[in-house]
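S.,

Sequence below, as promised.
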Amino acid sequence: LMDNVQKQLEVCAFTIQTCIIAEKVGAVRAELCDNPIEGGTTPSYGTIKQVREKVSIQLFPIIRPRSLNYFYDEEEWQIIIDDVKMCKELLCDGISIGISKQDGTIDIERMKRIAAIAYPMELTCNRVIDAAPNPFEALEQIIDCGFHRILTSGKAATAPEGMDILKQLVQQADGRISIMPGAGVKSNNIKEIAAVTGAYEFHTSARKAVANTVSYSNPKITDAGNMYIADEEELRKIVAILNAE
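The prediction came back faster than expected:
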């Protein structure tokens, strides 16, 4: 069904620099996140604003106030609503979000509410499907909520390990929603992932830690952490492979 659709790359970006690289190499979309170590949380107002001014590719900030799970209390729910409105005000093309109930199933009511608030932005459902007990049931619910794509590793640690479930999800979706494999997607496995799953959108961070450029650093400071920027050469390879498909 989707054989004639151009295969596309979304880059998971933890910095403005990565968004600029993503546009340069021919990715169609940046999923903008903070906190790579935590699996990605909502980026700041200033970050989103600057990225929007710098790049013209699709910009989808992740809306995730914290890590751990996708089950949110009333205060966190209000934070989510405000952040969705912020993305709309800043002219983002869409958002990446997932909300579950305490039992891990999709919170249909809240997801539909988000869809209404976010309109006319597009909606990517983040990996809440991988945290759900039944991904095939979750798929139907996410479609019902009006989402456009689902980022998923096929319930495995990485997409290459989850290819069997990814393939089943693509077949079940039958063109109603895009199943976008992500996690562990690289230039050396993307061709196989595309062939096996039948997906046409793919997600990668291709990230590498950058060297510290300040001339003085205190070795006793342990919370310095790493800064990650996408490997431009690796992204170019992935885009070239997808363009040749």
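The chain has a mean pLDDT of 96.

Coffee later?
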